[in-house]
Amino acid sequence: MFDSPLSASAYEILGVAATVDHEELRRAYRLRLRETHPDTGGDAAVFILVQRAWELVGSPESRAAYDRGHGFSRGGMSTPSAEDLAGWRPARPPRDSRPRARSYGHPGGWRRERYLVLIREWAGRGVEVPDPYDPALVRTAPRELRRMLADALAEEATARTIAEMGMGFTVWHDVAIDRDPEDKLDHVVLSPSGLYGLMSEDYGGPVGFRRGEITGNGVGRSAPVTALLARMRVLARAARVRFGGAVVVLPDDDLAQAVTPLGAIRGVPVVVARRGALAMVLRQGVPGARDIGGNELFDIRTRLQHTVRFV
After folding, report:
1. What is the DSSP string of 185-251?
2. What pLDDT was estimated at residue 10?
3. Consecutive 10-residue averages of pLDDT for the chain (311 residues)
4. What residues contact 25, with CB distance under 8 A and at least 6 apart?
């Protein structure tokens, strides 16, 4: 809930500066509880955020741990480890002898590299930035930079999920569509349940749906589903393959339910899924998608291998 580069800090949720004393912090918490309580007309989602913020900073011990980790430790209320305090890093895969999915490309690589260039230009102004992932630095960066890092992290998280699904799955990451690296396919997944195009996003808050598109404050005027389908069509024509479905993957807290089918859009079934539900979606298949297998699966993999380029 507070672990995205786009999320507000616990202090921002409570409406106080990070330097206030404990009594002022407690008064702010009680005020925000009254303001946001659903029984008095408040927003239930914000009410939950206020409670979670207090869990993180409501005691001297938890507040000290939160401040040391700037609120970005993986455990939330636990004392952050040295790895947590290093800021955002690609997670190290666990030691596992099980066969992993075939994987090509570098998930989140383009956005992470672009973030490093821009954050150093913005923060350094000619001076070396000791840690471009320092959460305190990221928190003050312009939203477009935080969004770029958030999307890179989202792509890396999706890649970890797919990698653990076994050798029956093949995935291509950061697939180039044209000369503009922004117009890329985050992931192309080939599995016995179908061939899918995936987009991994983090809009920094809850989203809704309207007429087959994703809506929300963080989405703005963009049309992510339309963009995803357009990129899939370009690759499908180039590789002479047919996608069975499209999946938009979002953080668990940003969706009211695990999987939201948007129906067939321009002939392609589309679902929006929580990150935690992605493995289930890929194993069971997108509703309406056509199963593939046998020689067809090998033929599609060969066509993609000969066609796919990476950003």
Report:
1. EEEEEEETTEEEEEEE---SS--EEETTEEESTTTTT--HHHHHHHHHHHHHHHHT----EEEEEE-
2. 87
3. 75 89 94 91 85 90 76 34 42 63 95 92 77 82 92 95 94 94 95 95 93 93 96 97 97 93 95 97 90 86 96 93
4. 14, 16, 57, 58, 63
For CATH 1.10.287.110, the residue range(s) in the chain are 10-72
Q: For position 95, what pLDDT does the model report?
A: 59
Q: What is the C-alpha to C-alpha distance for residues 5 and 222, in angstroms, rounded to an integer?
A: 20
Q: Do the bridges between strand 213-215 and strand 259-265 make them parallel or antiparallel, or are there none, so unpaired?
A: unpaired
Q: What's the pTM?
A: 0.79
CB 88 within 8 A of CB 133: yes
Cα four-point dihedral sign 18, 21, 24, 26: positive
Enter the tokens of residue 44.
């239930």
Distances in whole angstroms, Cα of residue 281 to Cα of each of 98, 202, 205, 226: 21, 19, 22, 20
The CATH architecture annotation of domain 10-72 reads: Orthogonal Bundle (1.10)
Q: Which of 117, 138, 124, 121 is nearest to 71 (CA)?
A: 138
Q: Which two three-digit tokens encode residue 182?
A: 């922004």
Contact (Cβ atoms closer than 8 angstroms) between residue 220 and residue 227: no
What CA–CA distance (Å, rounded) separates 7 from 299? 43
Bridge pairing between strands 268-274 and 259-265: antiparallel
Give CA–CA dist 204/143, Å, rounded.
Answer: 10
